Amino acid sequence: MTEPARWTAEDTEDAICCLCRVPGTLVHDVAPFGVVRCPQCELVFISPRLRLEALQQLYDDVGYFEGGVYGSGVSSDDGVPSAEGRWSPAMLLQRTWTAGRLALVDRERGGAPGGRLLEVGAGYGLFLAAAREAGWATSGVELSRTGAKHAQDTLGLDVFCGQLEDAPLEPGFDVVCAWDTAEHVPDPVSFWRSVRSLVAEDGVVAFSTPYVSSLPARLLGTRWWTLKPTEHIWHFTPRTHALLLARAGLALTRVVRSPLAPANAGRLDSLVGVARPIPGS
Ligand SMILES: [Zn+2]
Fold this sequence. Notes:
Elements: E1 12-13, E2 25-30, E3 33-37, E4 44-46, E5 49-50, H1 52-60, H2 83-86, H3 89-108, E6 115-120, H4 126-133, E7 136-142, H5 145-154, E8 159-161, E9 173-179, H6 188-198, E10 199-210, H7 215-220, E11 234-235, H8 238-247, E12 250-256, E13 270-277
């Protein structure tokens, strides 16, 4: 997606490290935004970043999911995948991830059948619909009104539109998934704490994010295609993921970086992680 050039310094606000509560030091100037790194824990984040109201405006834009892999195959007027879209390379990748991620979750749970699955950042609901088909009782949360409406009206899914902290959810989920979501949230520590409060003590948390220690990120700097400073306001590494999750009472137990793994197929700059509740935390 090309970034709209409409944002100015007035749409931005300064941010601090969500772990150490200190400002970052500048890595890249991408005015009106900045890519900064925490001097204490090395978490990379965007500051100044878009104000929350501007961010909501961005996610409500009907065009937000289009052009990206999440919107491909979903036409914006009736929400029905076109024959062309269904077999597009992006849609095939989407199907590979979905199948790979459902299989990963099954393996992590030792083959235990079904249960309750929550997806945070459900987008148009394609993963949730596949999970429901695989026998899960599904719930979703999605910030974009466009995405949530499609998931609710076209796919008949139970999706709450808003931030996770505000969602009326019954805790004790067997699985909580957050695919390409943690890099978008205002505060990852409070995000993972909410996830921790919702997952069962023997449950599994599965997520994906881009990572800033990946080869493309390191080689390309400001030309890294996933930098997107309007939307991706936190940039993690496996190490900072582990720090953040631990602060929220979750242990990072698996990291999948290979672009050959179905759950992460074709993704050179992203990882899939698995975390579990730390008992008593
Ligand atoms: Zn820090």
